Structure formats: C-alpha cells, structure tokens
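Annex B.
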Amino acid sequence: FYEKGLEKPFREFKLEICHEVSEPKLQNYDENGRIHTVRIDRITYKEKKKYQPKPLISHTAEKEQVIKLGTTDYDDFISFINAVRDTLMNLPATVDLSTVGLNYIEEEITVDVKDEFHGILAKGDNRILQHSVLTHVYVLSFLPGLADCRLGLNDILIKGNEIVSRHDIMPTTTTKWIKLYDCQFHGAVDEEAFHSVRMVVFNPLDACKFELMRFRTVYAEKTLPFAIRTAACVRGAEVELQSWLVMSTGFSSNRDPLTQVPCEN
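Stonin 2: predicted structure tokens.
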C-alpha cells in the first residue's frame, strides 16, 4: 500500500458510516502474476420509482469510489481489510435528525449474514486440523423515524424458551442450535438487553448498510463439504488441465436427501 520508510502517508481521509469495503479481487499485475485489490466506496442508498414496464419502488445504491488499493502481500491485504472493517463497526451510531421524519413509500429491512471460515486441512483425507469461523451480520433498513428492531438467533441459551408471536400461524422452530462466542456489537445495539434476554435489540441506521454484530462459532463437522483436486499435464505447447469435485460422504448436509442436487459432468 505504501513504500516502507515513508514519513507521511500518501493520502489521508476520514472513514464515515456511509463507507463500505468492496469484495477483494485478483487483477492482472504483470506477466509474472496478479495483484490483490480492494476499494473503499462511499455508498448512498435512495428510494426510486420505476414505471416501466410497471410501477415499482426500489432502493438502489449509488457508489462513489474513495480509494482503490492493491498489494502482492496477501497478509498485508487481509490485515488492512480487517482493520477498516473494525473501524467502521466501531464508529459512533449517529442519527441524522433531518431524516427522522422521512417516510418511505415502501418500508424495507434486509439482514445479510456472512460466514468467514479459515481452516488447516490434513494431507490425504482432508481432515480439519484447525479452524476459525467468524459470522458477520449486516443490516440495511429503510424505516421511518427511530425504529425499534429485534433480531432473534438460534442461540442455544434460549433453547426451550423461544418467543412465538401471537399472529404466527405456525411457530418458527429450529433443530440446529449454535453456541455464540466473543460477541461484538455495533453502537446501535442495546448490549444489556442481549445479555439479559439473548435478543438483539437495536435502532438501525437510516439507509445505511452497517455491521450489526459479529460472533464466533465452532465448526461441528470433521470434514469440508467438498474438495477440488486438480492435475496438469504439459505436452509440448499444450497444457491439459483436469479438475475433480469430490463430495465428502461424512458431511451432514450431503447425507440429507432433501438438499441433494444431481451433479452433471
């Protein structure tokens, strides 16, 4: 990102709640390899009306690139992304008073859950020797006023004490419970309420995607769901590349007939 030894950074800017980190990419660098790149964008979400082919209300994102960075050092690359995400999550939960009375034509809230898995596998049988699972929960909402939202999780500590709304026709139940470790929350979350009732109570930021919480879990499987094996053969000016997708018979979802999908060569 910079030449080591520089006394001053080549650029400075202030991180704001409207900033988002893009998905990491690999791009062509030179004839010898590729480079890891990532962007920090300023995102503005707006409600728009569309009349073709029929009337429709949509919430769209307008992106403005703040900076794009790249490096060939993968460790530096991941360290930078994690540092920016940590900073964005810890920014104060400010409320724009000018939008408190704003009414949306179509109210909407979206919850995006991303699991981040890192592991070390044994050679041969692909057994998992070490692993780390970090779950990120992101929220994007278009709600009027200071909305009070509640999010329930399949937390094993509430097993047997699930809350079912009176208007639910069929109770929502789960058979897969998880134990949460090292829970971290955005400033918009009432942490005392979570520790007392294990419910995530929060006032979402208006028209702004933010990381609501993150937590760690234990990976319950002994193997990965599948593995890819590749072999290359060089014959003169031709290179023959073959890949095999090997499904794990020991993975739980691979044994569930309801989730099995036929695979074609």
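The chain has a mean pLDDT of 84. The two ends are 42 Å apart (CA to CA). Further annotation is deferred to the next reporting cycle.
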